[in-house]
Automatic annotation (TrEMBL):
It comes from Streptomyces qinzhouensis. Keywords: Cell membrane, Membrane, Transmembrane, Transmembrane helix. It comes from the Bacteria. Its main location: membrane. This is Type II secretion system protein GspF domain-containing protein. The chain crosses the membrane at residues 54-77, 209-228, 240-262.
């Protein structure tokens, strides 16, 4: 249970594309990344380390109960790790969108047309899997706002819908696109900073949840230090097994309740 809880500004400047002139020769393809041995963290995921720890604890306690708990905890830990990775990817994507606004505004002030500016600075993680469609629309006169709105459907890329709105207004009424992008960047950055401040304020609550998850382990350590042998009582007697199951259920309910409170406070 404790393992599952544990797993629970500068503007980017776009580089102008290089033009290949006649007679300069063919363009050499960029060599792909060299193959490397996978890192230890890639091979030994946290969930499998959790299972290995449960196996070692089961051997020391001479009981199969810790092993069963470890096996049941593996999918929970895996799910928590994936949720954390998706949240980190969403935050990185939102930061890329903010940088894209600043880069587009800078290229527009440098004298480029909107389609050219997007083609210059669009190569990045901000557009995600929709990058080919957006760049093709920008280069060949397609429906750029629609392509941007399609790209905004991915997590963390919601700010692209604002770029699409600014693009539609600038094309339809002749308004300055750079000024609209500056205001959009300021709004997105303010929202991003507010979200970071909220996360900092909720860090104390998350630490409290982790502390509560480890309190039963501390109690077991104190009992063992006093000579009470709580592991033998919990794992080798019917009364102890009943208390263990009841305590685990109550702790899981409390942790889920606390995590839900933190989640609602963050996304309210």
């Amino acid at each position: 249970m404790a393992s599952a809880v544990l797993l629970m500004d500068g503007r980017g400047r776009g580089r102008r594309a290089k033009l290949v002139l006649a007679g300069c020769g063919a363009v050499r393809p960029t060599p792909g990344p060299r193959w490397r041995w996978p890192a230890f963290g890639t091979c030994a995921r946290g969930e499998w380390l959790c299972g290995a720890g449960a196996l070692a604890f089961a051997v020391l306690a001479e009981s199969v109960v810790p092993l069963l708990v470890g096996v049941l905890a593996v999918p929970l830990v895996r799910r928590a790790r994936r949720i954390r990775e998706r949240e980190r990817a969403r935050v990185r994507r939102a930061e890329e969108v903010i940088a894209l606004c600043g880069s587009l505004a800078a290229e527009l002030r440098a004298g480029l047309q909107p389609g050219q500016a997007l083609a210059v600075v669009g190569a990045g993680r901000a557009l995600g899997t929709a990058e080919p469609a957006v760049l093709a629309a920008a280069r060949f006169g397609g429906d750029v706002p629609r392509a941007l709105r399609d790209a905004a459907a991915e997590p963390g890329a919601e700010g692209l819908s604002g770029i699409a709105a600014c693009w539609s207004v600038a094309v339809g009424s002749g308004a300055g696109l750079a000024a609209g992008l500056d205001r959009l960047e300021a709004a997105l950055r303010a929202e991003h900073d507010q979200r970071e401040d909220l996360d900092a304020q909720l860090a104390g609550a998350r630490s409290t949840i982790v502390l509560l998850a480890f309190l039963p382990l501390v109690a077991l350590g104190l009992g063992s230090a006093l000579g009470a042998d709580p592991l033998r009582v919990l794992l080798h007697t019917p009364e102890g097994l009943f208390c263990l199951l009841a305590g685990a259920a109550l702790e899981a309910a409390g942790l889920c309740w606390a995590a839900r409170i933190v989640h609602r406070g963050r996304f309210r």
